[in-house]
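Annotated sample (chain length 330).
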Amino acid sequence: MNLIPPFDAHRVFIEPWTVNLPQTVLIASIGLIVALSSALIGNYLVLRRMSMLGDAISHSALPGIVIAFLISGSRDSFALTIGALIAGVVTTVLIEFIHRRTIVKVDAAIGIVFSMLFAIGVLLLEFAPHTDLDPDCVLFGQLEYLGVYAGSDPLQSLLASPQFQLLAGVFALTVLLIALFYKELLVSSFDPLLAGAQGFRPTFIHYAMMCILSLIVVSAFEAVGAILVIAMLILPAASAHLVTNRLLHMILVSVVHALISTIGGVHLAIWLNCPTSACMVLVGAALFAIAWFIHSRPFASVDLEDVDQANKNALLSPSQGLAGETGECQ
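Output written by the structure step:
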């Protein structure tokens, strides 16, 4: 039994950008905007050692989606987004409450909260009357089906897509906030105590970042689902962290990673006739393996504890400022 279809270079690389151009542009653009938004915020999650918080928010948003559907009576994207966003914020607050008020570590608090809220969402789906939400759509997305609505004009189809409009708005907001508060995010990610001493209010920054994370995860539901968005959050940032220890360089590398994984995933999905979002994640995982190989070479070996200490020393050095030119945390 041949599980892998025969490779046809013309069908895989040429036809998507000629015969099926509108569909390819719509699918690739939506996938890319999700990957870019996830990669940008994912860098801070990796640096803060909070990678699985995105997983918690993505699963915990399910009850918010169901409750919003029951209240609004429709599957309007805006209503479901608001419900999921509220659920994401509640998840963050509950995790912090359990972690700070008990001896339970943050990883255990994440597991407790997201499993509990996800179970509540599943029960609401089962027992709520007239609920026609598809759990598979929420969990796995439907990126390949969005291309069905593409017209003959690629640009017009893209701009008319409500999913692209929502995701583009979230991406623009993410870029704007990171650009405006780059220094605050930098300092609070490496040393919250120093951030507090500088008057940056690290607790407020943390909750604000969690709100943006919730918005990114929720807006990506219809495209890639709650499961695969986790990989898009972590893989680019983790890959970038293996090849560089400067924050600005990490952001640039993660953006390139998101671009390559998106385009490569589109072509891989056409070849294998598989879900596009899953293929994007597979390409991203392959890029992570390459970064891991580079990192494991003797000339690229870096002690992460030394890097963290160097980052703190650079931040504390009065001659270099908050992000001096010689500091590894730029």
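Annotation: The longest helix spans residues 21-47.
Annotation: The two ends are 52 Å apart (CA to CA).
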